Amino acid sequence: MGKRDSSYLPPDAKVCNTAINVKAGAAPAETAKEHKQVLVNKFLKRLAEDPSLDGNGSRPSETFTMAELLHVTQYPLKREFVYSYDQREYTPAPEKPVIDMAVLLDLLFKEQGLSCTFEDLMEHVLDGGKLDDFLKDQQRHCS
């Protein structure tokens, strides 16, 4: 795998020390957030193009529901409560809990006995690697 090129950066972005300046006058938190969004979008696009995920490959066709993945990883779902003035008590919020897919993937890797993280996978894919190659490399390192 070669060194990552700068093609994953926005065209007008440049890295200065620890801050990423994309727009003049933008707050550092905004530019860092925008940069992360660009990286995530590029990562997801490359994953979508990965031939090992197209369903026609040699990969088993077994799939899991989100509920099964949450159960297997023991994902820490946080249930929010709000105060109901009518009932004068705390009740569960009507919104569904947010699931952080990066955390879920980290937990799945850990469940499989792998010491890698979502960030490792993202870096591998952004460098042009494939999901199957990443998983094989990680299994080799853990054996």
Topology:
Layout lengths: L13 E3 L2 E3 L6 H22 L16 H8 L7 E4 L4 E4 L8 H11 L6 H9 L4 H12 L1
Antiparallel strand pairs: 1-2, 3-4
Number of strands: 4
The span between the termini is: 21 Å
Strand order across the biggest sheet? Answer: 1-2
Sum up the overall morphology in one term: extended
Question: How does this structure look, described?
Answer:
The chain is mainly alpha-helical. The protein folds into two domains: 1-49, no CATH class; 60-143, no CATH class. The protein has helices at residues 28-49, 66-73, 101-111, 118-126, 131-142; strands spanning 14-16, 19-21, 81-84, 89-92.
Describe the structure in brief:
The chain has 143 residues and is mainly alpha-helical. The protein has helices at 28-49, 66-73, 101-111, 118-126, 131-142; strands at residues 14-16, 19-21, 81-84, 89-92. The longest helix is centred in the first third of the chain and has 22 residues, at 28-49.
What would the keywords be for this entry?
two-stranded antiparallel ribbon; 143 residues; two-stranded antiparallel sheet; mainly alpha; 4 strands
